[in-house]
């Protein structure tokens, strides 16, 4: 069992420097900066956001893809420069070498463009291998079978990319959508998140003797929002980096299994699209993978998936971060200096990018609520739409980085116990998700259009 580090008193003066020395804060600044810049550019009549919002359309003939790329070369370069400038500025301030980050990010971006082009092919969509999941697959293959150049290490900043993407996601999910999901969606999300979390945590600590922090990180990945939850909870409880990596790997493995398994079961059982999307939302472990699985059904399934997974379960990350940070500070950490935990220490561990998510959502909600229907449509097309595209690219960077940095041998290096603990949660989550989504609340989800 890993040794527990004793916490050190926090210097009161360290708080302000965290605003520019912590990755969490930089994810907030970059995400909110993009949102505010998009609004300012829209009000000034600029088309910059639409110009860099490169989204390769679906195609059946490869010539259509090459035609799109050839007519949007300037936008592709502009998008690259936008992300390069934003991330490079933050990376430099955080104390990393741009001489390594820039060439590494350039390679990552080129790979992302290629993955996006291939992932837009209808053959790939047919087999649920659209860009995000394809990025995972490509990254895993390359990462496990090809030796990457050393300079790539500086650019594969999984946590930074996913945190920035989550903040941008807030701008695409206004509070009105949360209100529309109703109390039923929140009730189901609560049951699923709490039950699965406690199951994995109990199995990890009681059945398989894993460290409390390790079990908490595994439980977060399996019950809330996959990769980002593993990162957030792992940080809140001060889990070891290797344990966070293993949790992420297990999320990826089961997400890939479920992206194929759930649609097969849904079609075999003849489940209606609404309840089907809700079931995917309760039992899929990654937003991108779940979205791909829901997209294989229809638009209604995508909507109910979003309400259950993104709006419902993902919201628990903030709650669990607070709860688990409190438990870690008061129960797991031995204090030899006589100090006691305080609320300020919990705040320091709370993932700030979650707050950025809510702030972005509030900004867009207030903006849309303050205008008429015609202007609202313009905001959706020229502000929210491009932000969705940028969010998508951030997640592609994320999933490529996850794949390129994930080593399957890491799972075996700690034995079978983490896998068994996580799988115990899967065995509870999937049947419970079916019971709630199809049997108990099927009528409700069928009516969500």
What does this protein look like?
- This protein is mainly alpha-helical and 449 residues long.
- The chain contains 23 helices and no strands.
- The N and C termini lie far apart (49 Å).
- It has one domain (20-447).
- 78% of the residues lie in helices and 0% in strands.
Summed up:
This protein has 23 helices and no strands. The protein is mainly α and 449 residues long.
Shape by Cα distribution: globular
Low-confidence stretches: 1-14
Q: pLDDT average, as an integer? A: 83
Compute the number of helices.
23
Largest sheet: none
Query: How far do the termini sit from each other?
Result: 49 Å
List the helices and strands in order: HHHHHHHHHHHHHHHHHHHHHHH
Radius of gyration: 21 Å
Quantity of strands, as a count:
0
Q: What's the quaternary structure here? A: single chain
Strand content: under 5%
Helix vs. strand class: mainly alpha
Protein name: Putative membrane protein
GO cellular component, one term: plasma membrane
Organism: Desulfosporosinus orientis (strain ATCC 19365 / DSM 765 / NCIMB 8382 / VKM B-1628 / Singapore I)
Subcellular location: Cell membrane
């Amino acid at each position: 069992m890993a040794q527990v580090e004793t916490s050190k008193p926090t210097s009161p003066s360290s708080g302000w420097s965290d605003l520019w020395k912590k990755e969490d804060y930089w994810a907030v600044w970059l995400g909110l900066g993009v949102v505010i810049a998009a609004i300012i550019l829209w009000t000034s009549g600029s088309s910059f956001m639409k110009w860099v919002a490169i989204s390769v359309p679906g195609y059946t003939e490869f010539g259509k893809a090459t035609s799109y790329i050839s007519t949007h070369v300037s936008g592709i370069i502009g998008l690259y420069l936008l992300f390069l400038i934003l991330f490079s500025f933050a990376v430099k301030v955080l104390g990393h070498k741009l001489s390594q980050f820039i060439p590494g990010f350039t390679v990552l971006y080129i790979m992302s463009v290629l993955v996006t082009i291939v992932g837009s092919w209808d053959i790939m969509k047919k087999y649920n291998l659209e860009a995000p999941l394809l990025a995972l697959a490509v990254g895993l293959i390359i990462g496990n079978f090809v030796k990457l150049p050393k300079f790539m290490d500086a650019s594969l900043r999984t946590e930074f990319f996913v945190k920035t993407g989550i903040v941008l996601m807030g701008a695409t999910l206004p509070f009105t959508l949360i209100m529309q999901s109703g109390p039923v969606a929140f009730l189901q999300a609560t049951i699923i998140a709490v039950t699965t979390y406690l199951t994995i945590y109990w199995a990890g600590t009681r059945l398989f003797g894993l460290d409390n922090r390790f079990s908490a990180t595994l439980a977060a990945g399996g019950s809330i929002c996959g990769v980002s939850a593993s990162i957030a909870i792992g940080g809140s409880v001060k889990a070891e980096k290797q344990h966070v990596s293993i949790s992420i790997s297990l999320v990826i493995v089961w997400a890939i299994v479920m992206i194929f398994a759930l649609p097969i079961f849904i079609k075999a059982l003849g489940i209606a699209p609404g309840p089907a999307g809700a079931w995917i939302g309760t039992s899929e472990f990654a937003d991108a993978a779940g979205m791909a699985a829901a997209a294989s059904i229809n638009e209604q399934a995508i909507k109910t998936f979003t309400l259950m997974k993104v709006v419902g379960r993902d919201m628990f990350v903030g709650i669990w971060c607070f709860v688990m940070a409190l438990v870690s500070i008061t129960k797991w950490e031995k204090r030899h200096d006589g100090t006691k935990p305080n609320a300020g220490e919990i705040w320091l561990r709370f993932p700030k990018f979650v707050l950025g998510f809510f702030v972005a959502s509030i900004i867009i909600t207030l903006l849309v609520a303050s205008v008429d229907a015609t202007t609202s449509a313009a905001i959706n097309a020229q502000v929210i739409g491009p932000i969705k595209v940028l969010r998508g690219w951030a997640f592609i960077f994320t999933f490529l980085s996850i794949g390129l940095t994930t080593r399957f041998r890491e799972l075996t290096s700690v034995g079978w116990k983490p896998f068994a603990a996580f799988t115990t949660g899967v065995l509870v989550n999937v049947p419970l998700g079916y019971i709630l989504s199809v049997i108990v609340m099927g009528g409700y989800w069928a009516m969500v259009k």
